């Protein structure tokens, strides 16, 4: 086949539709190779020559799986994402939340009514800024918590400011960038320090090993009066009307190929391994911001159906904050 045609098909497929992926998975091996080259280019992937064969094999399997998901699940589009060349172990290493560890101090958290004077409505995703990228770290918990703090800052200041996941990670004891952690502990850490640097003054370094320093330039003050656990789906909706909510969820291989639509496949219920941030809802779905960049899902977000309670565990380990600026004084 003509190289130009292969390239054009590959370009279409990297951002492609359901049918394109299905055709490709069953099509010419040369097209698969063209697609793989495009993927490498688009995601900036570089491999040692000895590694390339393994990566291509992973990629081919991922495209085949994405094609099958597209055929079996009408409502959702699946395709190529940053996970396409990874082994399952590598992908699992980017889901750094462990619900088992959380059960120990579950009941420390009370529920609090959302202040009715501070009801923004259901969907204010646009205020909360773009999805970020944790890359191949286990820092989802720090990103989930930081997105909550960004949301509150944005509501208060009427302007989005990217905040520092690195400082959140440095200041949360017992949680790490390399091995994972707890989004509620991260929120507690900022409640204690009362400050958080901007991303611009203290960017994410993808590493552990820095001490907790709350004196970065341009650090923003936080007067957090409490970290609270939501009570089921109704509690999640109520909490969302006052700001974003850090959520522990189940993220499986099928979700790693998600490119858009209202997600309703319940295979995600078999795990509880990832932390994200719920940012809004309608009567039929939740809107969730992930930390896998803007290339995954709907510009980095996913919509989960509300037809099932607790879809993908969205309300099992979900935490919100109240601050003095949203009308709360201790
Ligand atoms: C989930 O998706 C898989 C693969 O597409 C499909 O086989 C299965 O029937 C789906 N399950 C549900 C509950 O939707
Ligand atoms: C999760 O936490 C539990 C209890 O703290 C621990 O035994 C288990 O090994 C952890 N699992 C992972 C995958 O880290």
Task: Describe this protein's structure.
This protein has 330 residues and is of the alpha+beta class. It has two domains: 79 residues, no CATH class; 224 residues, Alpha-Beta Complex (Cathepsin B, Chain A). It has eleven helices and ten strands. An eight-stranded mixed beta sheet has the order 1-6-9-8-7-5-10-4, with helices on both faces. A two-stranded antiparallel ribbon has the order 2-3. The radius of gyration is 20 Å and the shape is globular. 46% of the residues are buried. The model has no long low-confidence stretch (mean pLDDT 88). Bound molecules: 2-acetamido-2-deoxy-beta-D-glucopyranose (2 copies). The site of one 2-acetamido-2-deoxy-beta-D-glucopyranose has 8 residues, from helix 4.
